[in-house]
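User: Could you walk me through two proteins back to back? I'd like the raw sequence and the structure tokens for each, with a short line separating them so I can tell where one ends and the next begins.

Assistant: Of course. Protein one, sequence then structure:
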Amino acid sequence: MRDKPFGAALLDVAHQALTQEIAPALKGQQRYVALMVANAISIVAREIEQADKVAKAWDRALARVEREGEGNLEVSASRLVTAIRSGEHDWGHRQLDWLWSRQDTRRRITRRLMPERPRR
């Protein structure tokens, strides 16, 4: 018996079929629409794959706000929205300075931003 494809895996198969089998046979507007649909499928597949990470991040953020709350999820969610809007969860200059101070990070960023110089 075949394994059932689930969620993101099924969407990946659909994306491959669209981009490798269907889109190459199309032209103009039809090709554009097929590739746009394939792109949307990829986005949804990534969202499905990352759903657990997003849920955990949401739980951590709510827990941080709930420490000050009455344990009411709606109140906590409202406080979280207020905290996000006020910039409490934004990265500030201190965090960016710390990140930049790490040599491995600086090296990776520089490598990506600076084009390789041709050797003579």
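----
Protein two, same layout:
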Amino acid sequence: MEDLGIRFDGLVAHLRRELPHKLDHVVFADADPEKTADTIGAFKYRNAGQVCVSPTRFIVQENVYEKLRDGFAERAALPVGCVHPLPKGLDPVTAALAEPAACCLSGLEMFRMPPGATVVVMGGGIMGLLTLALARRRGAARLILSDPLEERREIARKLGARVVVDPTRESLPERVMALTSGQGAEVVCEAVGKPELVAEAFTMVRPTGVLQLVGVNPKGSRPPIDLFDLHFREVRIHGAYGRGTAFRRALALLPRLGVKRLIGAKFPLARIEEAFAHAAAGRGAKTVITPGA
């Protein structure tokens, strides 16, 4: 892809492992700034920026940074309808949670939350914790979260989880069945993206309940469930791709969700390596880099 002004090599593969979620673009010093700006500008706003190949970060070598910045700025004009004012009481750092919150909300809006529902969330990363907070807002009566990290379980408690489980110390399905008199939960959300956890989540859904796929499983994964059991128990399975039309509604909800505590740490751009190390260590739920700080 040299002719597009972008070079990929082993360094990019390494960075891709270190910077999860959406695709990251790395621009080296020998890149053509104009061609690069044309290319990444198109990727950035593909399908309104909601697809996972739409980059959220650009890693740029210093001596080409200013030319790329200026070139990209000329290509980044947005229709006024794509610009959302921040609601009163929402600071810019917490507002950065709007995109993942919208993805979680889009999934939860695919079904009506049953009255008095027990909701199980597997995984206390940013997507799991936002799903937990939004499920509570949408009427869940009892929230259960499973995560091996104590820090994340404590955040879940503060967000309203009545029960938190360390899956390395006890069986989550057994705990859920004990709490629901053997019936299972009305809603189970798998927020990690592992087929084996999807299989475990399916066992905890009560008849006519919902299995919500929040985590993204590897491409090529096959449903790890008994299809007869799916039919017999009338379980509904949902998976939301991107934020759909939920962005504006999620942004409006953020000031009322109490999710500011999800920001585990803030780092200036000069400490970017430290920020990535902090995130890779699984500390907190969300690590934020503030370029202007």
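The first strand starts at residue 24 and ends at 27.

Let me know if you want the two compared in more detail.
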